[in-house]
């Protein structure tokens, strides 16, 4: 068993499994410890001595923390000019107060991974905005809040989007959806809301804003979307959107609010597109 003394930070990182490979410079000491000379065909060749376990300490005193850890292998890295110890599981530890910290860190890491996985499942893979399932879950919560009277639904649809796919291809259509979603995310923050991809080229923004302020802000959104063209070798592409808006205070429930916003969207389409209709 080989004993190695490390700094407190490095010792804790090994115990908390933040690092799994320990590097030691290729100096005289480690050459003496690790290199085993052998005579093969009258030539001296060296192999690296292997240890099943290592004793890792923080300092030199008897009361200083230490641990016995599995050593899976020891290699030499020519690119870094160092010996690398690949570490395994901790077999024994003494005078450490990190066991609880390790458990806490592990639980915290697992919770973060769970939260990240949940967030990934709730997002549309192309546009990275929330998906319809997340919208339905959020709507149940938002409609029960004390300020639900200010809740509104903005139903947004890209005008003549099928023509973009048919003329320029689905890859360009995807670029258009990404562009559109970026604009919606930007303006949703101004609207105090969140964006969801409802399906295809349809999006919904759920937001909290008064009726007196929403008109100008939505017109700003509409103008911003068509202010920039998407490049394509055939010709640059302009995007416009139609919107339907409804208010929770005017509806009996959240389902009716979505239906009214959808109806407003169809009104906007029928009246010439690139416009906003309120229901």
Topology:
Blueprint: E1 2-5, H1 8-15, E2 21-25, H2 28-34, E3 35-40, E4 43-48, E5 53-57, E6 66-77, E7 82-94, H3 99-121, H4 132-142, E8 151-158, H5 161-168, H6 170-190, E9 193-199, E10 202-208, H7 211-225, E11 241-247, H8 254-270, E12 276-278
Parallel strand pairs: 1-5, 11-12
Antiparallel strand pairs: 2-7, 3-4, 5-6, 6-7, 8-10, 8-11, 9-10
Helix pairs in contact: 5-6, 6-7
What is shown here, in short?
The longest helix has 23 residues, at 99-121. This protein has a five-stranded mixed beta sheet with strand order 1-5-6-7-2. Strands 9-10-8-11-12 form a five-stranded mixed beta sheet, sandwiched between helices.
Descriptive key words:
single chain; 279 residues; alpha+beta; five-stranded mixed β-sheet; 12 strands
Describe the 3D structure:
The chain is an alpha+beta fold and 279 residues long. Helices cover 39% and strands 30% of the residues. It has helices spanning 8-15, 28-34, 99-121, 132-142, 161-168, 170-190, 211-225, 254-270; strands at 2-5, 21-25, 35-40, 43-48, 53-57, 66-77, 82-94, 151-158, 193-199, 202-208, 241-247, 276-278. It has a five-stranded mixed beta sheet. Strand 11 (241-247), helix 8 (254-270) and strand 12 form a beta-alpha-beta unit. Helix 5 (161-168) runs antiparallel to helix 6 (170-190) and helix 6 packs antiparallel against helix 7. The protein is elongated and about 95 Å long.
